[in-house]
């Protein structure tokens, strides 16, 4: 009680002195929820009244109303500092909601629309003999393409990436190591379409090879290498130096120390990094457009002739522009997301399971 | 190079065979292993150099045939004779859509990152950061499909409203029709880069030293004041570099843009009306109809994109490196 | 200025784990009270309950009463932010804000609390606080330099200046000298002697000589075993605790027989 009066006095004189009362008038705990509800109701009312067509607008309106109302109410009851604090809190919450809406919608649409034509037939058939306006057909050829292209890319990129990381962590001193570190960073930022253009220019245009899954694999490998280097590097750095020294002190040569002591300690994290990199390139479509060309048919040979891939298939079916092909595009998107998510979850599972202990308390 | 036994012998104390005080590279196993790993590192450098060289060679070929001005021509007729093409429209579209994406995504990402690091109840924040990381893995073509078939039809209302109230500015003029415009691309790119910017910023915010937060709290700071005094100053450079990484992604994004944008080779006054193009989108969209010179012309535009992303990423790395020095 | 602290029946938890059990004590105004005891006995936790910093730790929870004169810090409607303004705190490791100058560090709390403060008024507060922390002469020529550039002891005194600038009633110190060299420690101890003219001071320390040197009253905390909550064994005049404690465990601890 006395606290309230003191605080009022403070507001009255605007004195910069510390408050001696411990009591601050606070909004009740239910206030934010009530304000949010009120803002939503008013927004809907305005939306209906003014005939705003887009639900997005209703949401934006509700958000603005909520933030404004919270600030005004808090400023009146609790004072300016608390009002600012509440303003920040409500802005942070609004940000969170703004972000959640599209991401949830993306997931929802993909699942709801994708499930329609997704069945055994869809997974086990190609588009051979199916007109794009016809329903039916499937993604079998695209799955084969994706698996082969991603597999070859991994076989190329993983060892190179791993060895580069070992070089950087275990041997890397001096200029070369610095240059490699820098260019690995630069390489991480290369747009996938540029990697595609590079392979196009030297493999197809200059060396006169045809379009093939392998050409796509090379571009994917370029995209994958820096990711593998980075994550492996992080993992190797987590291996405590004592382990290396213990092994070296036993007279074990350095290369065997790396192979037998360092790598096994970090293997969980390395595997996680590689799988995350695989998940990343499995969704790449731009290089495929340039290098693999796309096909309706099953082509099991990645080294000869056009192939398809899941991301490319989605693009192609979307471009066909009719209901039947849209259905196939959504179904393929669901398959692709499921594939990528499973890779991600497995990768994180491994990371949890084999995490090197002691890095954190 | 059979000096191995000779140099291994000198340390006379050596009961242990370990080559103490000499380079490990003298053992054959070590030599091979070092050669392999150093070779891999060098290979990466060679690839980077090759990318620059090959793109430049092909681009030069295209430019030598170009009848237009590569930087100012508003046209892309690389397959006609004589070929005429210029990147003005593409550069404009790429930069504008990426900037819109940044304007939307960065504040929201900072908000979500703070939400996860300082506001959300712990039970919520761990799964939430997990979900954000997963979303970063959603393939861009799926964003494209969603953008074209869901987002575009739902933006018409918002755009009409913007036209009603802000149409006078010119850039928010909107004539009915599918909202397959640069602004839509900006929104879509914002959604796409949100996860990456968020997760990098979150990491930085979580690293803010607890003792400074406690110092602010003990002075009687509210939660927001704690963040302003001890978290944001600490995280500023991290957020900047996270944004640059996001910008790099937005600049190079291909399939999502190619799926959603309705391209044209002009710079429209309005951002809401369809038209425009980006480097990556133009490469993917025009590739199949391109002949030899046409492909080389696309490679030339890809080279510009390459340089642009190099600059942005380089700047991001510089900022991160500076921060490391600062905190160490 | 200074107020009396009256704790009764205080329990503190980390999640399900009870960290301190049923503590009651009185801390006299304008005096220095030292908390001693073995590691993990809950003395730092207890200190942090006195300005409601304990609940900042995830899972941190408090039961009981802490009366500051006649107001309960844990009473309904009490604002923890106001509590922390009234009960200042100095931490184990000096923690000046790294991005702020010396001046801004001292002014930080005042700026938070007062909104707009006139420049000359602020100058006065900063000078007074730095003088109060015996730091003014060392830094008056470089007030605009970053606080992180000072030595450890100077940084800790800067933190004390920052804490007293907002004119708290009570000053809590959590092992303020444990990260400092002997000379800086001496400077801080001298400072504590001066500050008790104006503030109620509570200090946690591992160093028993320090407790004996600076404090008027000493509280000894102990725990029954690993995983058990910490308890207050006894609190008495420092002289008595160090010469003739009433509990055997206190004497054992002070004479170095355990802990």
TrEMBL record, chain B:
<keyword id="KW-0812">Transmembrane</keyword>
<dbReference type="GO" id="GO:0005886">
    <property type="term" value="C:plasma membrane"/>
</dbReference>
<feature type="transmembrane region" description="Helical">
    <location>
        <begin position="41"/>
        <end position="63"/>
    </location>
</feature>
<keyword id="KW-0592">Phosphate transport</keyword>
<comment type="function">
    <text>Part of the binding-protein-dependent transport system for phosphate; probably responsible for the translocation of the substrate across the membrane.</text>
</comment>
<feature type="transmembrane region" description="Helical">
    <location>
        <begin position="182"/>
        <end position="201"/>
    </location>
</feature>
<dbReference type="InterPro" id="IPR035906">
    <property type="entry name" value="MetI-like_sf"/>
</dbReference>
<feature type="transmembrane region" description="Helical">
    <location>
        <begin position="297"/>
        <end position="320"/>
    </location>
</feature>
<dbReference type="GO" id="GO:0006817">
    <property type="term" value="P:phosphate ion transport"/>
</dbReference>
<feature type="transmembrane region" description="Helical">
    <location>
        <begin position="83"/>
        <end position="116"/>
    </location>
</feature>
<dbReference type="InterPro" id="IPR000515">
    <property type="entry name" value="MetI-like"/>
</dbReference>
<dbReference type="Pfam" id="PF00528">
    <property type="entry name" value="BPD_transp_1"/>
</dbReference>
<keyword id="KW-1003">Cell membrane</keyword>
<feature type="region of interest" description="Disordered">
    <location>
        <begin position="1"/>
        <end position="25"/>
    </location>
</feature>
<feature type="domain" description="ABC transmembrane type-1">
    <location>
        <begin position="91"/>
        <end position="316"/>
    </location>
</feature>
<dbReference type="InterPro" id="IPR011864">
    <property type="entry name" value="Phosphate_PstC"/>
</dbReference>
<keyword id="KW-0472">Membrane</keyword>
<feature type="transmembrane region" description="Helical">
    <location>
        <begin position="128"/>
        <end position="152"/>
    </location>
</feature>
<comment type="similarity">
    <text>Belongs to the binding-protein-dependent transport system permease family. CysTW subfamily.</text>
</comment>
<keyword id="KW-1133">Transmembrane helix</keyword>
<protein>
    <recommendedName>
        <fullName>Phosphate transport system permease protein</fullName>
    </recommendedName>
</protein>
<dbReference type="InterPro" id="IPR051124">
    <property type="entry name" value="Phosphate_Transport_Permease"/>
</dbReference>
UniProtKB/TrEMBL annotation, chain C:
<keyword id="KW-1278">Translocase</keyword>
<feature type="domain" description="ABC transporter">
    <location>
        <begin position="5"/>
        <end position="248"/>
    </location>
</feature>
<dbReference type="InterPro" id="IPR003593">
    <property type="entry name" value="AAA+_ATPase"/>
</dbReference>
<dbReference type="GO" id="GO:0016020">
    <property type="term" value="C:membrane"/>
</dbReference>
<dbReference type="InterPro" id="IPR003439">
    <property type="entry name" value="ABC_transporter-like_ATP-bd"/>
</dbReference>
<keyword id="KW-0547">Nucleotide-binding</keyword>
<keyword id="KW-0813">Transport</keyword>
<dbReference type="InterPro" id="IPR005670">
    <property type="entry name" value="PstB-like"/>
</dbReference>
<dbReference type="GO" id="GO:0035435">
    <property type="term" value="P:phosphate ion transmembrane transport"/>
</dbReference>
<keyword id="KW-0067">ATP-binding</keyword>
<dbReference type="InterPro" id="IPR017871">
    <property type="entry name" value="ABC_transporter-like_CS"/>
</dbReference>
<dbReference type="InterPro" id="IPR027417">
    <property type="entry name" value="P-loop_NTPase"/>
</dbReference>
<dbReference type="GO" id="GO:0016887">
    <property type="term" value="F:ATP hydrolysis activity"/>
</dbReference>
<dbReference type="GO" id="GO:0005524">
    <property type="term" value="F:ATP binding"/>
</dbReference>
<dbReference type="Pfam" id="PF00005">
    <property type="entry name" value="ABC_tran"/>
</dbReference>
<protein>
    <submittedName>
        <fullName>Phosphate ABC transporter ATP-binding protein</fullName>
    </submittedName>
</protein>
<dbReference type="GO" id="GO:0005315">
    <property type="term" value="F:phosphate transmembrane transporter activity"/>
</dbReference>
């Amino acid at each position: 009680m006395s606290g309230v009066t003191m605080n009022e006095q403070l507001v009255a004189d605007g004195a910069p002195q510390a408050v001696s009362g411990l009591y601050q008038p606070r909004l009740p705990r239910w206030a934010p929820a009530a304000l949010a509800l009120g803002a939503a109701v008013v927004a809907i009312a305005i939306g209906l009244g003014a005939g705003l067509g887009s639900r997005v607008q209703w949401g934006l309106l509700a958000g603005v109303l909520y933030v404004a109302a919270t600030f005004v109410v808090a400023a009146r009851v609790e004072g300016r500092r608390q009002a600012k604090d509440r303003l920040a809190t409500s802005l942070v919450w609004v940000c969170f909601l703004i972000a959640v809406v599209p991401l949830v919608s993306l997931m929802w649409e993909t699942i709801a629309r994708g499930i329609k034509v997704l069945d055994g037939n869809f997974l086990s058939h190609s588009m051979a003999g199916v007109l794009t306006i016809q329903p039916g057909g499937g993604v079998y050829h695209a799955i084969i393409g994706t698996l082969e292209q991603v597999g070859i890319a991994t076989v190329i990129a993983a060892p190179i990436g791993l060895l580069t990381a070992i070089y950087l962590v275990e041997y890397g001193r001096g200029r070369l190591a610095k240059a490699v570190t820098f260019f690995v960073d630069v390489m991480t930022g290369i747009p996938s379409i540029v990697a595609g253009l590079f392979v196009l220019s030297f493999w197809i245009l200059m060396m006169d090879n045809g379009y093939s899954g392998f050409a796509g694999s090379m571009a994917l490998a370029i995209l994958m290498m820096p990711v593998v280097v980075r994550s492996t590097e992080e993992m190797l750095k987590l291996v405590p130096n004592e382990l290396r020294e213990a092994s070296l002190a036993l007279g074990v040569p350095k290369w065997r120390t790396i192979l037998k002591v360092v790598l096994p300690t970090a293997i969980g994290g390395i595997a996680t990094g590689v799988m995350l990199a695989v998940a990343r390139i499995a969704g790449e479509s731009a290089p495929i457009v340039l290098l693999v060309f796309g096909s309706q048919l099953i082509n099991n040979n990645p080294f000869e002739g056009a192939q398809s891939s899941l991301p490319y298939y989605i693009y192609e079916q979307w471009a066909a522009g009719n209901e039947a092909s849209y259905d196939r595009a959504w179904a393929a998107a669901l398959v692709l997301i499921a594939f990528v998510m499973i890779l991600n979850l497995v990768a994180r599972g491994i990371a949890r399971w084999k995490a090197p202990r002691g890095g954190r308390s | 190079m059979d000096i191995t036994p000779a140099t291994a012998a000198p340390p006379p104390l050596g009961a242990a065979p370990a080559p103490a005080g000499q380079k490990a590279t003298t053992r054959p196993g070590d030599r091979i292993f070092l050669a392999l790993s150093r070779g891999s590192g060098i290979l990466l450098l060679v690839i980077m150099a090759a990318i620059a060289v090959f793109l430049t060679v092909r681009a030069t070929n295209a430019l030598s045939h170009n009848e237009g001005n590569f930087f100012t021509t508003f046209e892309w007729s690389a397959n006609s004779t004589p070929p005429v093409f210029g990147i003005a429209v593409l550069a404009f579209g790429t930069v504008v859509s990426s900037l819109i994406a940044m304007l939307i995504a960065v504040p929201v990402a900072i908000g979500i990152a703070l939400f996860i690091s300082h506001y959300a109840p712990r039970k919520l924040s761990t799964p939430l950061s997990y979900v954000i990381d997963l979303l970063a893995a959603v393939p861009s073509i799926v964003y494209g499909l969603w953008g074209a078939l869901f987002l575009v039809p739902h933006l018409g209302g918002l755009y009409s409203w913007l036209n009603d109230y802000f149409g006078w500015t010119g850039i928010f003029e909107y004539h009915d029709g599918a909202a397959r415009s640069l602004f839509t691309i900006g929104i879509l790119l914002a959604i796409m880069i949100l996860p990456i910017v968020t997760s990098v910023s979150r990491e930085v915010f979580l690293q803010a030293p607890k003792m400074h937060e406690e110092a602010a709290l003990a002075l009687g700071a509210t939660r927001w004041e704690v963040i302003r005094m001890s978290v944001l100053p600490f995280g500023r450079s991290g957020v900047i570099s996270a944004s640059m990484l996001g910008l790099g992604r937005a600049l190079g994004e291909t399939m999502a843009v190619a799926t959603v944008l309705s391209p044209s080779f002009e710079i429209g006054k309005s951002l809401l009306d369809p038209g425009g193009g980006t480097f990556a989108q133009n490469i993917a969209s025009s590739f199949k109809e391109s002949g030899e010179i046409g492909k080389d012309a696309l490679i030339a535009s890809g080279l510009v994109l390459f340089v642009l992303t190099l600059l942005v990423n380089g700047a991001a790395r510089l900022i991160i490196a500076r921060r490391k020095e600062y905190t160490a | 200025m200074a107020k009396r602290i009256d704790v009764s029946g205080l329990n503190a938890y980390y999640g399900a784990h009870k960290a301190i059990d049923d503590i009651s004590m009185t801390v006299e105004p304008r005096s220095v009270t030292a908390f001693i005891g073995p590691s993990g006995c809950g003395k730092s936790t207890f200190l942090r309950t006195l300005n409601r910093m304990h609940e900042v730790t995830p899972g941190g929870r408090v039961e009981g009463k802490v009366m500051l004169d006649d107001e309960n810090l844990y009473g309904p409607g009490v604002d923890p932010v106001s509590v922390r303004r009234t009960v200042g705190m100095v931490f184990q490791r000096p923690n000046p804000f790294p991005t702020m100058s010396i001046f801004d560090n001292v002014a930080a709390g005042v700026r938070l609390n007062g909104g707009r403060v006139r420049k000359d008024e602020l100058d006065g507060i900063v000078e007074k606080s730095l003088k109060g922390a015996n730091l003014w002469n060392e830094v008056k020529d470089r007030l605009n330099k970053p606080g992180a550039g000072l030595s450890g002891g100077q940084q800790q005194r800067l933190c004390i200046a920052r804490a007293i600038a907002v004119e708290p009633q009570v000053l809590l110190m959590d092992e303020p000298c444990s990260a400092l060299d002997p000379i800086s420690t001496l400077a801080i101890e001298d400072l504590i002697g001066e500050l008790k003219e104006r503030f109620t001071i509570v200090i946690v320390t591992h160093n028993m000589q320090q407790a004996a040197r600076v404090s008027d009253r000493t509280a000894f905390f102990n725990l029954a075993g690993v995983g058990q909550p910490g308890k207050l064994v006894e609190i008495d005049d420092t002289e008595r605790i160090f010469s003739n404690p009433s509990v055997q465990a206190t004497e054992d601890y002070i004479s170095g027989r355990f802990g």
